[in-house]
Amino acid sequence: MASKTTENSKKRTRKAASIQPPAVVEPRKDVVLANPPSNGNLEEEIRRRAYELYLERGGMPGNPNQDWLVAEQQVRSRQMQQAG
Questions:
Q1: What's the domain count of the chain?
Q2: For residue 3, which phi and psi values (nearest 5 degrees)?
Q3: How far apart are CA 64 and CA 53, in angstroms?
Q4: Residue 48 lies in a domain
Q5: Cα–Cα dist 31/3, whole Å
Q6: pLDDT tens digits for 42-77?
Q7: Does a structural domain hold residue 82?
């Protein structure tokens, strides 16, 4: 942390910025990719969902690792719902 000595010789420190956990983005129903993946290829389905998240951001740069994790959570959750 950075410290600063003020005119009256008291040290002040800055608080660390609070870090918020990333928001989970719900899948959009209107985004449909051609050739949806087969149920047997989990990695391909996650890859496609991560790409959909990128497209939903309007193609703006983001965190590809975070997109992958969110996509993986959504795909696995959907598979559990379909199986149950």
A1: 1
A2: -120, 155
A3: 9
A4: yes
A5: 49
A6: 999 999 999 999 999 998 988 999 999 999 999 999
A7: no
